[in-house]
Write a structure and sequence with these properties.
Layout lengths: L1 H9 L3 H7 L1 E9 L7 E2 L5 H10 E15 L3 E14 L5 E2 L2 E10 L2 E10 L7 H9 L5
Parallel strand pairs: 1-7
Antiparallel strand pairs: 1-2, 3-4, 4-5, 4-6, 6-7
Helix pairs in contact: 1-2
Protein name: Nuclear transport factor 2 family protein
Organism: Kribbella jiaozuonensis
Pfam families: SnoaL_3
């Protein structure tokens, strides 16, 4: 599920993404570029178009670092190793560290939370302090 959904999203295909990964009504997202936690998952024509225009494909390999599963909850700590085209930027590494939390709902696993960051490659205290102060922005 994690591999297929990451491949679909990175290819800009929200229909395939939603076909393998179902979101809970109370889904929350902590996106990799920071900012406040977002609530809900919108799958409308505008979201499809924006995702298709932004994520233009590449290679995806999901590595599961850890998993914790009970009858009702599952948490995956993964690295999404991704290389490809995003926006108008040249092809590059877009790997993310990701935590996925799922809840069983009527026999189906639903994603309740996703937290992603781009800190796959180690940074130093100076860079971390700049990030924490909000000094590394576009």
């Amino acid at each position: 599920m994690a591999q297929e959904s990451a491949e679909a999203y990175f290819a800009g295909d929200l229909d395939a993404y939603e076909g393998v990964l179902h979101h809970a009504d109370d889904f929350t997202l902590m996106p990799p570029f920071g900012g406040p936690t977002r609530s809900g998952f919108v799958l409308d024509d505008e979201a499809r178009q924006a995702t298709r225009a932004t994520f233009r494909g590449g290679e995806v390999e999901v590595e599961v670092d850890a998993s914790y599963v009970t009858d009702e909850l599952a948490v995956l700590a993964v690295v999404e190793r991704q290389r490809g085209l995003v926006g108008e930027l040249p092809e590059q590494d877009w790997s993310l560290r990701v935590t996925l939390a799922f809840r069983r709902d009527g026999g189906q696993w639903r994603l309740v939370h996703r937290h992603a960051d781009a800190l796959v490659h180690t940074i130093g205290w100076s860079t971390l302090s700049q990030l924490a102060r909000g000094e590394l922005t576009d």
